[in-house]
Specification:
With 684 residues, the protein is mainly alpha-helical. It has 23 helices and 5 strands. A 3-stranded antiparallel β-sheet has the order 1-5-4, with no helix packed on it. Strands 2-3 form a two-stranded antiparallel sheet. About 3% of the residues have low confidence.
Length: 684
């Protein structure tokens, strides 16, 4: 196994397991041993020989030693960030559009796509989720580009599902955009995003900085595609016209209106019709100037490593935009962009997957916190090396956030190896809490970095008292009503989980609940609490995640944990415990509130529930004891846990994530914290 540039832990990826090749695959798939991944040598981490005399101590030591073994030479931990197959399918499309197909890599990507197909013939957005139309269409199209015939059994089954669910016309905007690029869908049916939007000043009510960071980094380059409407002519065997239920009519390229005449969605549909008329006009006086500004923005926002925004959609669309602007494939900006995408891949002899994003900073901070809860000494070389690696990743330039906070000093951390334009509150708080007490050599440098990070995070508080991930006051909810916003993710509003995280940071560094920013945050959280008692989880599944983050933050800031509103949330958590002692919540809870906190038990979600209850002073309750026993009973002999479920969230409902670090780091944190809080009085 290999990645293009950065080593990634083999034990923390889906490449641990081999799956049988699908029926009628065009070439036999052999199974070979993955490439060796070099980790931190034992002379550095000095395996701590334990004297575990009870199951709890033994479990903590097993997982602690697992993470010692998995630490990589530079000091970080990094596990796979698994999402859905559209990310890799679009990678295949990119290479065809650029005219630079690598047949061996394409074969490996096709193998991966086929292995992810369900027995029913569709592809899903999360493990055991329902079939997803757009995801299945993109996988089908990518396989046809890779040379699979429409009569292949995998494609026949997929086509049956696609047609039964309305075909291409019912797919989402991104899917239609990719199909339009290859002439398989009309550009008229793609929602308008005029490139002239780039010319609107920052103070305008609607401008590019009112979109979320991820939407902005994707939409700005996409506007070049929409302005140029390129079409790559496909050979007949790669076309997918068979995915239309019937031949499309002009009316099929309009957008479905809501019932009633007066609604925000219907208003924006009308605006889109007007924009289509404008875009078809030969007279667009500002198009050239806007295109030049977009081109400049793309080039300025490229990291020195070639990345844009740290996410696949932004990177892929930036490369496509530069291609449409006439940049050759070997131009340094394009070549670096392609290299950056390659650095997101995980590859072995038979498969290649492109990750939507990578999470080394996040993973390292979480493991570092877990190792401290596991009683690894604060001066341990492994912890020091990880802390220094994190300190070296501090962001020291002003990113897009400066538009709304021009006087704020740079600070904080991003999610990826390199993403200086978009640090985020979640990673920044996790890093600062993780490195706070480690005995690094240069304590002043750490103190200065933490001071800058805290100041930056506090400066990102929104007017309503809450915190979002990447932006401040990014709350124009009307943007999620435009036709382009069918993922409902064009903004980055404050959320309960991020606000709880910030209170945890403040409490860990001496702030009290009387601090003005804490007061407004507490008010925000009280307003955000669900009637049943929990809090919504924006960045993890779902109400268990949100409630854990909030209770951790409330305890850290000094809130009275016997308050009625907190007791209500505690009772809700207890009421959702499964018969096996664990907790779980399905991704479907984003669609159906009756599934709040409901689902098969998982190691990560059980750990969140346990940490939430312990924060609320419930360490000795029966629910916690049963949860601890669940984790002990389900641990593998090597200190790991198995977990197929997706418990991370990209966009609620539409883009779910499986962090392969979660199933091991959070149980270690929960077990270690339980052992510390019970101080040897725990059940044997």
């Amino acid at each position: 196994m290999k990645s293009s540039k950065y080593p990634i832990s083999h034990a923390l990826t889906s490449f641990n397991h081999t799956t049988a090749a699908p029926v009628e695959a065009p070439a036999p798939i052999s199974v070979k041993s993955p490439a060796k991944v070099h980790r931190l040598p034992s002379s550095i981490w000095k395996k701590m020989e334990g004297s575990a005399g009870n199951p709890l101590d033994k479990a903590v030591e097993l997982t602690r030693d697992f993470f010692f073994r998995e630490q990589l030479p530079d000091g970080y931990w990094w596990a796979e960030l698994e999402s859905n197959v559209t990310i890799t399918a679009e990678y295949i499309m990119l290479f065809h559009f650029l005219g630079m197909v690598d047949k061996d890599k394409e074969r490996k990507m096709a193998n991966y796509l086929l292995r992810q197909q369900t027995e029913e013939g569709y592809w899903t957005v999360w493990h055991n989720g329902p079939g997803d139309l757009s995801t299945t269409i993109e996988a089908y199209f990518a396989l046809k580009l890779a040379g699979y015939h429409a009569d292949h059994i995998a494609l026949r089954k997929a086509r049956d599902f696609i047609l039964a669910n309305g075909g291409i016309l019912k797919s989402r905007v991104f899917t239609k955009t990719f199909l339009a690029m290859f002439g398989e869908f009309s550009w008229l049916g793609v929602p308008s995003m005029p490139i002239e939007l780039m010319l609107l000043p920052d103070w305008a009510y609607l401008n590019v900085y009112e979109f979320s960071s991820w939407a902005r980094a994707t939409i700005i380059p996409m506007s070049v595609l929409m302005a140029n409407r390129p079409v790559y002519k496909l050979p007949p065997h790669a076309r997918v016209q068979e995915l239309y239920v019937r031949p499309p009519r002009p009316t099929d390229y309009t957008f479905t209106k809501e019932d009633g005449i007066f609604s925000l969605k219907n208003f924006f549909i009308g605006v889109d019709h007007l924009l289509k008329i404008y875009e078809s006009s030969p007279i667009r006086p500002f198009k050239k100037r806007a295109t030049e500004k977009v081109e400049q923005w793309i080039l300025e926002h490229q990291e020195k490593t070639g990345d844009w925004g740290g996410i696949q959609p932004a990177m892929l669309n930036a490369i496509l935009a530069l291609h449409c602007l006439g940049y050759a494939n070997d131009h340094p900006a394009v070549a670096k962009g392609l290299e950056a995408l390659a650095n997101f891949t995980i590859e072995d002899s038979d498969s290649l997957v492109l990750q939507s994003c990578i999470s080394p900073v996040w993973d390292t901070a979480l493991v570092l916190q877990a190792m401290q809860e596991a009683s690894v000494p604060l001066d341990h070389p492994s912890l020091i090396k990880a802390s220094q690696w994190l300190l070296d990743r501090e962001v020291r330039i002003k990113g897009d956030w400066k538009i709304k906070s021009p006087d704020l000093e740079p600070g904080g951390w991003a999610f990826e190896f390199q993403n200086d334009w978009y640090p985020d509150v979640d990673d920044s708080t996790a890093v600062m809490i993780a490195i706070k007490d480690i005995k690094v050599k240069n304590t002043k440098a750490r103190q200065d970095a933490i001071r800058r990070g805290i100041d930056w995070c506090l400066g990102m508080q929104s007017e309503n008292g809450g915190w979002a991930a990447f932006d401040k006051d990014n709350t124009k909810h009307m943007l999620n009503k435009i036709p382009f916003a069918d993922l409902e993710a064009l903004i980055d509003p404050p959320t309960a989980d991020l606000t709880g995280r910030m209170l945890e940071l403040m409490g860990n560094f001496g702030y009290t609940k009387d601090h003005p920013q804490a007061v407004s945050a507490l008010e925000f959280l009280k307003n955000e609490q669900e009637p049943e008692g929990p809090w919504f989880g924006r960045w993890g599944v779902n109400y268990i995640y949100g409630t854990w983050y909030v209770l951790i933050g409330l305890e850290a800031i000094g809130e009275d944990m016997n308050s009625p509103y907190i007791k209500k949330s505690v009772n809700w958590i207890k009421s959702r415990q499964n018969l096996d002692g664990g907790w779980g919540e399905v991704c479907d809870s984003y669609w159906d509130r009756t599934l709040m906190g409901c689902g098969p038990s998982t190691a990560s979600q059980t750990s969140w529930a346990l940490m939430a209850l312990m924060a609320a002073g419930e360490v000795g309750c029966q629910a916690v004891e049963r949860g601890i026993q669940y984790l002990l009973a389900t641990q593998n002999s090597d200190g790991t846990w198995d977990e197929e479920a997706f418990t991370g969230t990209g966009f609620p409902k539409y883009f779910m994530i499986k962090y392969h670090i979660y199933r091991n780091c959070f149980p270690l944190t929960a077990l270690g914290r339980y052992r510390r809080l019970t101080a040897g009085t725990h059940a044997q």
